[in-house]
Amino acid sequence: xxxxxxxxxxxxxxxxxxxxxxxxxxxxxxxxxxxxxxxxxxxxxxxxxxxxxxxxxxxxxxxxxxxxxxxxxxxxxxxxxxxxxxxxxxxxxxxxxxxxxxxxxxxxxxxxxxxxxxxxxxxxxxxxxxxxxxxxxxxxxxxxxxxxxxxxxxxxxxxxxxxxxxxxxxxxxxxxxxxxxxxxxxxxxxxxxxxxxxxxxxxxxxxxxxxxxxxxxxxxxxxxxxxxxxxxxxxxxxxxxxxxxxxxxxxxxxxxxxxxxxxxxxxxxxxxxxxxxxxxxxxxxxxxxxxxxxxxxxxxxxxxxxxxxxxxxxxxxxxxxxxxxxxxx
Length: 329
Description:
With about 325 residues, this protein is α+β, with helices and mostly antiparallel strands. The protein folds into two domains: about 5-110, Phosphorylase Kinase, domain 1 (2-Layer Sandwich), CATH 3.30.200.20; about 115-320, Aminoglycoside phosphotransferase (APH), C-terminal lobe (Aminoglycoside 3'-phosphotransferase, Chain: A, domain 2, Alpha-Beta Complex). Helices cover about 45% and strands about 15% of the residues. The chain contains eleven helices and eleven strands. The radius of gyration is 20 Å and the shape is globular. The two termini are about 35 Å apart.
């Protein structure tokens, strides 16, 4: 999530940025269906097809990561993988860095993918099979992906960012202690192409779309991709799936998921057993990003911001619940 001061709708900014692409002028009325979290997303149309403008302030993202994200998507699409399609601007660029009256902003445009989000499609066995197959295929392609220039950041750089960020926040010794424990644990894990590579990092049910006609899943939002153990994606996909299911149903769907995934890419049993530790990495990273996002305060904040702070306070408590617990060797 971006810092709270950036979570305001700015359709004038969106219109200024979208003019860098060819678009159907009447379709800007779709801007009213915007959403803002880690980026601002504004729907519109190009030649009648729904597309999305994705933008964010330059202070919120690393340009090297955004460039590497688009390189990875281009690589995947070139091999037939159903990742979302980025559309070039009038000048042929997939990523623009523009100065505006509201500061510098990054902007990209993507075509809408087919199907419905897994979170809205139900969890029939066939959908779970397609979901897991898409993740296994992604990792199989990632294992042969040449390192781009500039490279996407890796888990070590994420640890460095967490450390630097936590040191600017008061009263976070517990989180810093958790960081130390996790750094020590992951430093002992082997790193090679069969288990470690560029992961999606947000392969959750709202970022994967199932198309009933083709039976194929399309994948969006590679914004958080990083080099990590592939198990990181498996853990987060299963955790996302678990939120959609009862305890009894989840056990069955998990078995289907792991079997389908394994048909495309091998699972390391030792890393599978370490799922709780990977979950703690995700908790610490999300905790730090949340604290970074909400550190600014203002007088007379709007009601939605007050409610958001209350919701995020609960999430911070949940994410920090495991901090400091012993990690099995």
